[in-house]
Amino acid sequence: MSADTVATNKLMNKFDGHHSVWLFGYGSLIFKADFSFIERRPASIRNWARRFWQGSHDHRGTAKSPGRVATLIPQADAICDGMAYLITPQVFDHLDYREKNGYLRLATEMTFDDGGSAEGLVYIATEENAAFLGPASEREIARQIATSVGPSGRNSDYLTDLADALRRSGKDDPHVFAIEHYLKEFAGC
Ligand code: SIN
Predict the structure, then answer these.
(1) 67 lies in a domain?
(2) Is residue 1 one of the residues assigned to a domain?
(3) Which residue range forms the structural domain that includes residue 127?
(4) How far is the CA of 99 from the centre of ligand 1 (A)?
(5) Is the pLDDT of residue 169 over 60?
(6) Alpha-carbon distances, residue 66 vs 26, 57, 81 (angstroms)
(7) Ligand 1 atom at shortest distance from the alpha carbon of 82
(8) Is the pTM above the cut of 0.70?
(9) Cβ within 8 Å of residue 112, ≥6 positions away
(10) Does the pLDDT at position 73 exceed 70?
(11) pLDDT for 142
């Protein structure tokens, strides 16, 4: 199922007229920066938890066999670590297309690891979008990820690339690392 959000995201005009905008990435935007940026800084956002609850029918799965990718779920006092990119508004054409399967731009405050904060944007796939899969145990999520593949590659690479990136930056995310653990079990290593 597809939930093309490109047109809706074009209506998001909060940062119109700005020469540059901060974008917070928490999933593939951490490890796959296929866009130009002015500056990149490790950052976090508060009151959101990263969860593999979003279906991927266009990147890491197919319409018949969707994969599972990250979205953010509201959770009081949770901290989600990620990467902030300062980008020009032109980059949103590419990003809106890349994130079109259910992700909407949302304004958010982000805190930089090296100090300070800024208001910017984050792509969030809420439970209202047609591609949303919702909660499942981390074992079940790993089982689905283990067998899913789409035009952007294997779903398991998305998970392990994200886990590796978080580890390299010294960040913990029990949800991501639990899925990685089960994924290794299914792969027999
Ligand atoms: C993000 O990385 O910030 C959004 C979700 C994704 O593209 O994986």
Answers:
(1) yes
(2) no
(3) 6-187
(4) 7
(5) yes
(6) 20, 5, 26
(7) 3
(8) yes
(9) 41, 42, 43, 84, 118
(10) yes
(11) 98
Please tell me the distance from the alpha carbon of residue 120 to that of residue 129, in angstroms, as a whole number.
22
Task: Please tell me the total count of domains within the chain.
Answer: 1
Residues with CB under 6 A from ligand 1: 25-29, 69-70, 99, 123
CATH of the domain at 103: 3.10.490.10
User: What is the 32 CA–ligand 1 centroid distance (Å)?
Assistant: 9
> What residues pair up with 136 in beta bridges, in sequence order?
none
CB environment 120-145: b (16+ within 10 A), e (fewer): bbbbbbeeebebbbeeeebeebbbbb
Site of tokens 């090296």: 114
In the numeric block, which tokens belong to residue 72?
A: 């953010």
Exposed/middle/buried for residue 47 (C-beta within 10 Å: 0-12, 13-18, 19+): middle
Q: Residue 168 is encoded by which pair of tokens?
A: 């390299």
Give the pLDDT score at 16: 87
Burial class (CB in 10 A: 0-12, 13-18, 19+), 92: buried
Identify the H or E element spanning 158.
helix 155-168
Q: What stretch of H or E contains 63?
A: none
The position carrying tokens 């296929």 is 34
Report the DSSP beta bridge partners of residue 20. Answer: none
84, β-bridge pairs: 24, 41
